[in-house]
Design a protein that fits this description.
single chain, globular
C-alpha cells in the first residue's frame, strides 16, 4: 500500500508541476506567447489552456474531489498531451518536442492507474 501511494503521489506531483505550476507562472511570458503563435493558435487559446490546466491539476491533487471529476481531468490532460504532440509534429516535424508530451502522457497514465489502485483499496 505504501509503495502504491509513493508511486501515485510522485507521478501526480510531476504532472502538477509540469501542467499546473509551470504554465501558471510562465504563461504570460513572451516565450510562451510565441510558442502558442508558432503552433498557429490564437493567444486567447493559451490563456484558456492555462486556466483549464490549473483546474485539472487541482482536481487530480485534491483528495476530496469526486472520482467523476478526476476522470474528466485525466481525460482532459490525455487529450492535451496527444494534441500537443500532433501540433508539434505537424508544425515542426518529428523531433524532441513531438515526443515530450507523450512522455508526460506516460507519467499521467501511471498517476491514473495508481489512482484507481488506491481508490479500489479504500472501497
Amino acid at each position: 500500500m505504501k509503495k502504491e501511494q509513493i508511486i501515485f503521489w510522485t507521478s501526480t506531483i510531476i504532472i502538477a508541476l509540469l501542467e499546473g505550476l509551470m504554465p501558471a507562472l510562465t504563461s504570460q511570458t513572451e516565450l510562451a506567447k510565441e510558442g502558442i503563435r508558432h503552433l498557429g493558435y490564437p493567444e486567447y487559446f493559451g490563456n484558456a489552456l492555462v486556466v483549464f490546466k490549473v483546474i485539472g491539476v487541482l482536481a487530480i491533487v485534491i483528495p476530496k474531489v469526486p472520482t467523476r471529476i478526476k476522470e474528466w481531468a485525466y481525460a482532459g490532460f490525455a487529450f492535451d498531451f496527444l494534441f500537443a504532440a500532433i501540433s508539434h509534429g505537424a508544425v515542426d516535424g518529428i523531433n524532441g518536442q513531438t515526443f515530450f508530451p507523450l512522455v508526460v502522457l506516460g507519467i499521467l497514465a501511471v498517476s491514473y492507474i495508481y489512482h484507481h489502485k488506491l481508490s479500489s483499496v479504500k472501497l
